């Protein structure tokens, strides 16, 4: 079982805003990073640290954190955002890292 | 631009040792900033961190796999390697290598290989 918990599936209408959440005790002390994975492809980093986006990631992607919950928000979801999204952080011990179970995002 | 490329057998027999190599190009594996990592994904499932190695050889492993995993680095060849022993069909997965970076409050994997599927079967 994962120390980071995500909803298995979320859907959003095209152009609307969606929030994908990740819960875990370690998130009280550590930021989450977020990865997008499309079928047959390797994951790509979309958010890290305190709402930082790697070069090339659209600014409709943003991150936030409160208590034991980290969130990835997509403002104005596009068809190409349909993918699996994984959160990641240190585990409770701080010595290892762990992934959330993933959220499948459907853009309607 | 740093690139990672996994290589190794796509088929391993049960009880044997799975061995993969990740070649780093476009950057130095000896940089003290990064942790060179292995992550796997069972078919249709989520991501599972296996472990990582620092350029000086320090290693950290997923506790659930620790007894069977060894990660090593060869800076002269600019690659790092994974060995997973006593494999079973449950180890069939896509294996990714990735570059990890951490500061005190966060961790991220910013560069990933394309992944390689390893099947365990007789």
Quaternary structure: heterodimer
Using only CA atoms, what is the Rg of chain A? 13 Å
> Residue ranges of chain A: pLDDT <50 for 5 or more in a row?
none
Q: How helical, in percent, are the residues of chain B? A: under 10%
Number of strands of chain A: 10
The DSSP helix count of chain B reads: 0
Question: What helical percentage do the residues of chain A reach?
Answer: under 10%
- Biggest interface and residues each: A-B, 28 and 23 residues
Q: Could you name the ranges of chain B where pLDDT drops below 50 across 5 or more consecutive residues?
A: none
Task: Give the biggest beta sheet of chain B.
Answer: 7 strands, mixed
Instruction: Tell me the radius of gyration of chain B.
Output: 14 Å
What is the first-to-last residue Cα distance of chain A?
30 Å
Mean pLDDT of chain A: 95
Main beta sheet of chain A, described?
6 strands, mixed
Per DSSP E runs of 2 or more residues, the count of β-strands of chain B stands at 11
The H-and-E topology of chain B, N to C, reads as: EEEEEEEEEEE
Mean pLDDT of chain B: 95
Structural class of chain A: mainly beta
SSE series of chain A: EEEEEEEEEE
Give a short overview:
The complex is a heterodimer of chains A (108) and B (122). Chain A has 108 residues and is an all-beta fold. In chain A, 0% of the residues lie in helices and 45% in strands.
Describe this structure in words.
The complex is a heterodimer of chains A (108) and B (122). In chain A, 0% of the residues lie in helices and 45% in strands. Chain A has 108 residues and is mostly beta strands. In chain A, the strands form 2 sheets. In chain A, strands 2, 4, 5, 8, 9 and 10 form a 6-stranded mixed sheet that branches. Chain A starts with a strand and ends with a strand. The mean pLDDT of chain A is 95. With 122 residues, chain B is mainly beta. In chain B, strands 2, 4, 5, 6, 9, 10 and 11 form a 7-stranded mixed sheet that branches. A 4-stranded antiparallel sheet of chain B has the order 1-3-8-7, with no helix packed on it. In chain B, β9 (93-103) and β10 (106-112) form a beta hairpin. Chain B is globular. The mean pLDDT of chain B is 95. Chain A binds chain B through residues 2, 29-33, 35, 37, 42-45, 48-50, 54, 86, 88-90, 95-102, and chain B through 39, 46-49, 52, 60-63, 96, 100, 103, 105-110, 112-115.
């Amino acid at each position: 079982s994962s120390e980071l918990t995500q909803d298995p599936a979320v859907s959003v209408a095209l152009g609307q805003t969606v929030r994908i959440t990740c819960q875990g005790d370690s998130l009280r002390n550590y930021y989450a990073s977020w990865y997008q994975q499309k079928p047959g492809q390797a994951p790509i980093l979309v958010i890290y640290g305190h709402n930082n986006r790697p070069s090339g990631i659209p600014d409709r992607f943003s991150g936030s954190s409160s208590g034991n919950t980290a969130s990835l928000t997509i403002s104005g979801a596009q068809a190409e955002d349909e993918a699996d999204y994984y959160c990641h952080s240190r585990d409770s011990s701080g010595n290892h890292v762990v992934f959330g179970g993933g959220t499948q995002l459907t853009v309607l | 631009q740093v690139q990672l490329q996994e290589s190794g057998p796509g088929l391993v027999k049960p009880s044997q040792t799975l061995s993969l190599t990740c070649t780093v190009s476009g950057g130095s594996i000896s940089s003290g900033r990064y942790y060179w990592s292995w992550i796997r994904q069972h078919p249709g499932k989520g991501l599972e961190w296996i472990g990582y190695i620092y350029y000086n050889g320090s290693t950290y492993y997923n506790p659930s796999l620790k007894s069977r995993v060894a990660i090593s680095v060869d800076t002269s060849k600019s690659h790092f390697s994974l060995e997973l022993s006593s494999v079973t069909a449950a180890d069939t997965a896509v294996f990714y290598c990735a570059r990890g970076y951490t500061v005190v409050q966060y961790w991220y994997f910013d560069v990933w290989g394309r992944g390689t599927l390893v099947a365990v079967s007789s």
